[in-house]
């Protein structure tokens, strides 16, 4: 099999991994070497599904000893299999990099023979890149659950980021769909990476030359919609991972039906809106100071698909609004729907010079489509007459559909939006008399 | 109505600002030579570039406002938008009055306009860091053609000297007929015109082919979303992409 054939098979097999970010590392180039990492990360292209291509995302092999029902590479699945040699991966990485196609390598693998053997192969590739080719671009490596501590530790000294995919958010899910795996084998390497990272930072304070360990941190991925787990459970898990394991990112991947296994739900299309809601909530956890419990609770364990989590939160806490844009503190500004980190900082800095009115906000580029219902500018409110959360909600949903006329979600009628109006009332209004 | 005309260099622009400041004039426009429109009602003043005066303005911006402001002025100059001269002039006038906090005053039109143009240029610069595509030529040089809207080739060159420090490369701005060239030691910007057709190195085509296949296979068919793709990567940049 030639390299082109292998590349086709193994990129197809790698595409369901969402992570592609190349940020968080400031690795410098060495003399005579190739490449460096950029802290902000750099996207090099965008594929037809609109996702960014930053790293050369590839599996070392898709021969797998496991049979996880949700995974396209399970051994019972009938598809072409291939395996790279370490030299082939190195050659592709170097040559793609020199042509500026990519920012680095994202190397993952199915489990071939046993976890240790697979991890050993991955280690060889990254070692070759760093030591023989003097390659200093970004490397993101998958840690294979179940591999020995020593191999994972060794690999960590060569790469910028490591990740272990949790995939299924609960133990029940694992039992049902991936009976050969268990929670402990996944969590263990994450704990190991975390401890080593802290150690390395401490050591580098004393000895500057001691090697960095995974400087861009670790990440993980959760599949959304393959099991019955609700959003609250997923979000709580993410919150725990951010707090307990210092994860840089948790990625969410809408389950793409890759199998007709009766244990899996039947889906017409991947639950993309739900995935989007989880990402929005994830951002709220990391950058906006929300807790998972504020966004969801047991009486309402799933996100509203019509409204983003922040709007939803604001409507449930309508007594806090409207806020005065010229006086509210940063934390409160961040909680106004439609105002993000950048907008909030712009407001804070420019209101030092003069108080802002509605048109100033427009000029600053702040999106007022949602914010207008929740703010006052110099005491004047530009939203609805009263702060009734149901009215505002209806208004927001209508605005949304005005901007996306082509969504194939059921057409809204006046009656579904205003259930309090009876049919007769409407006829009277339209006809004017009776 | 007065219009200042400078020779198109950054020093020329700074000299014009020096002159306007000390002659206490308020020019309607500050234009580069190649953008003059004929109009007999307008009094045109040609500004002679003067290194010393430019240097003074340069230092004054850095010390009296901030190095941030200096970068903004340079980026807006490189944006080549038509009225960049007068926007910079008014921004600096305010800056010399307020000092280093001038950039916070986004409610002011000139500050805001500066900021918007600056953002545009830096966004394009960042895009280009990822979207330059090198082709290896038969003499071993990596050649990357681009056609950016703003004159950013000098802004991206230092980045490539760091990461491709051990290769010879050329980034050719085809729209402006200039190129940044690097010989494994230092880089320069030069006017160039391509006379002959460039020959690709052996093996170049096969890497291009591998990349194209990779590009097609990495996308998830069930999630195809051309609108998102175009928003992230505007079509005006597709011309020199191998994969498109």
TrEMBL record, chain A:
Superkingdom of source: Bacteria
Residue stretches making up the Radical SAM core domain: 58-190
One Pfam family linked to the record: Radical_SAM
PANTHER family given in the database record: ENDONUCLEASE/EXONUCLEASE/PHOSPHATASE FAMILY DOMAIN-CONTAINING PROTEIN 1 (PTHR21180), TYPE II SECRETION SYSTEM PROTEIN K (PTHR21180:SF9)
Name the UniProt record assigns to this protein: DNA modification/repair radical SAM protein
Natural source organism: Tissierella simiarum
Lineage, uppermost ranks: Bacteria, Bacillati, Bacillota, Tissierellia, Tissierellales
Automatic annotation (TrEMBL), chain B:
Pfam families from the UniProt entry: DUF4130
Domain DUF4130, residue spans: 86-243
Highest taxon of the lineage: Bacteria
InterPro entries per the UniProt record, alphabetical: DNA_repair_put, DUF4130
Name of the protein this chain belongs to: TIGR03915 family putative DNA repair protein
UniProt source species: Tissierella simiarum
């Amino acid at each position: 099999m030639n390299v082109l054939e292998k590349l086709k098979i193994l990129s197809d097999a790698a595409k369901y991994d969402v992570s592609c970010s190349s940020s968080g590392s400031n690795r410098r180039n060495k003399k005579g070497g190739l490449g460096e990492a950029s802290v902000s990360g750099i996207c090099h292209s965008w594929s037809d599904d609109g996702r960014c291509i930053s790293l050369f995302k590839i599996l070392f092999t898709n021969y797998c000893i496991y049979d996880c029902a949700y995974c396209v590479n399970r051994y019972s699945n009938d598809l072409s299999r291939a395996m790279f040699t370490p030299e082939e991966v190195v050659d592709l990485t170097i040559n793609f990099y020199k042509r500026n196609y990519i920012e680095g390598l994202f190397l993952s693998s199915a489990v071939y023979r046993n976890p240790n053997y697979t991890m050993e192969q991955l280690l060889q590739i990254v070692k070759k890149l760093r030591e023989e080719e003097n390659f200093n671009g970004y490397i993101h490596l998958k840690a294979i659950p179940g591999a020995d501590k020593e191999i994972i530790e060794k690999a960590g000294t060569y790469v910028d980021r490591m990740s272990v995919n949790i995939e299924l958010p609960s133990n029940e899910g694992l039992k049902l769909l991936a009976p050969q795996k268990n929670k402990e084998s996944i969590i263990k390497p994450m704990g190991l990476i975390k401890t080593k990272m802290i150690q390395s930072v401490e050591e580098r304070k004393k000895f500057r030359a001691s090697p960095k360990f995974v400087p861009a941190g670790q990440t993980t991925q959760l599949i959304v919609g393959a099991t019955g787990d609700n959003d609250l459970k997923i979000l709580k898990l993410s919150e725990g991972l951010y707090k307990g394991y210092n994860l840089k990112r948790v990625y969410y991947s809408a389950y793409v039906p890759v199998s007709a296994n009766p244990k899996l739900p039947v889906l017409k299309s991947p639950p993309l809106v739900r995935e989007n809601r989880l990402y929005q909530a994830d951002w709220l956890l990391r950058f906006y100071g929300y807790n998972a419990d504020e966004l969801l609770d047991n009486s309402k364990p799933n996100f509203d698909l019509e409204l983003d989590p922040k709007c939803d939160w604001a409507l449930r806490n309508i007594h806090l609004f409207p806020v005065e844009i010229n006086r509210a503190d940063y934390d409160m500004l961040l909680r106004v729907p439609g105002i993000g980190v950048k907008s909030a900082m712009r407001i804070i800095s420019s209101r030092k010079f003069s108080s802002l009115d509605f048109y100033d906000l427009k000029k600053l580029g702040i999106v007022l489509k949602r914010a207008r219902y929740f703010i006052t500018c110099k005491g004047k409110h530009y939203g609805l007459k009263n702060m009734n959360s149901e009215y505002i909600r209806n208004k927001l949903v209508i605005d949304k559909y005005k901007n996306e006329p082509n969504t194939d979600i059921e057409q809204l009628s006046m009656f579904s939006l205003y259930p309090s109006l009876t049919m007769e009332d409407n006829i009277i209004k339209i006809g004017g008399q009776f | 109505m007065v219009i200042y005309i400078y020779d198109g260099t950054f020093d020329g622009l700074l000299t014009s600002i020096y002159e306007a400041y000390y002659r206490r004039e308020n020019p309607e426009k500050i234009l580069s030579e190649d953008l003059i429109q004929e109009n007999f009602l307008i009094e045109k003043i040609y500004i002679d570039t003067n290194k010393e005066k430019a240097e003074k303005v340069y230092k004054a911006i850095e010390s009296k406002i901030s190095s941030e402001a200096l970068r903004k002025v340079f980026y807006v100059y490189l944006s080549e938008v038509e009225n960049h001269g007068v926007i910079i002039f008014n921004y600096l006038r305010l800056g010399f009055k307020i000092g280093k906090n001038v950039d916070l005053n986004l409610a002011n039109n000139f500050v805001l306009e500066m900021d918007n143009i600056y953002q545009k240029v830096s966004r394009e610069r960042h895009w280009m860091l990822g979207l330059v595509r090198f082709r290896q030529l038969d003499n071993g040089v990596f050649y990357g053609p681009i056609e950016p809207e703003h004159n950013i080739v000098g802004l991206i060159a230092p980045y490539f000297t760091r990461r491709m420090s051990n290769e010879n490369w050329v980034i050719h701005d085809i729209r402006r007929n200039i190129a940044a060239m690097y010989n494994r030691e230092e880089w320069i910007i030069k006017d160039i015109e391509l006379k002959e057709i460039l020959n690709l190195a052996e093996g170049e085509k096969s890497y291009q082919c591998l990349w194209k296949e990779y590009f097609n296979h990495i996308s998830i068919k069930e999630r195809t979303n051309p609108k998102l793709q175009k928003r992230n990567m505007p079509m005006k940049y597709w011309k020199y992409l191998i994969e498109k």
